[in-house]
Amino acid sequence: DAGITQSPRHKVTETGTPVTLRCHQTENHRYMYWYRQDPGHGLRLIHYSYGVKDTDKGEVSDGYSVSRSKTEDFLLTLESATSSQTSVYFCAISDSFLVADGSYEQYFGPGTRLTVT
Amino acid sequence: AQSVTQLDSQVPVFEEAPVELRCNYSSSVSVYLFWYVQYPNQGLQLLLKYLSGSTLVKGINGFEAEFNKSQTSFHLRKPSVHISDTAEYFCAVIPIFGNEKLTFGTGTRLTIIP
Known about the structure:
The structure holds two protein chains of two kinds.
Chain A: E1 4-7, E2 10-13, E3 19-25, E4 31-38, E5 42-51, E6 54-57, E7 64-70, E8 73-78, E9 87-94, E10 107-108, E11 112-116
Parallel strand pairs in A: 2-11
Antiparallel strand pairs in A: 1-3, 3-8, 4-5, 4-9, 5-6, 7-8, 9-10, 9-11
Chain B: E1 3-5, E2 10-14, E3 19-21, E4 24-26, E5 31-38, E6 44-50, E7 56-58, E8 64-68, E9 73-78, E10 87-95, E11 103-104, E12 108-113
């Protein structure tokens, strides 16, 4: 298994509070991703990072921010949590970004279940 | 942009019976295709991928998939399922060239009936 950990694994928080989820990798992969998984929607990309301090938005980035100060850590922050952000959050990593080199694969962490009440 | 359709949200199958999970995609450019499996309360694990070459791809746990470019499909099959195959299966695509991201289908929950 790829060395990816997520913390916390479960969290319950109240509407309006800030929340930070952490993804930590030991693979030294350059690219890191945050997804959310919701029934009927599959996985949707929130933000991704292509290097330290280099990040970009995915398809569902509203209400989320990210930071990456070290290769191994990618943080996802909900500045003011809402009930619509109740979801399971997955971190993923990949070593290549240009798919044409034929080795592209994303490795996923175990997920964080977040409940906003 | 790409899209992935998994028409079957749930598929119940008797143990030792064959199964096919359907995946169709839409893309104006050439893509690579993936199947991921998610066991209960776990992250996603790569089952198999099609990058090039033979259109029949074999993966882990006895699964295989066939890429059909004319029908834009990448259906997943297993000749005989086991209880341990109970999981959710996701099809995903990514353009070969460029820096776009993986696009996932909505998933198919496979339930094995003893």
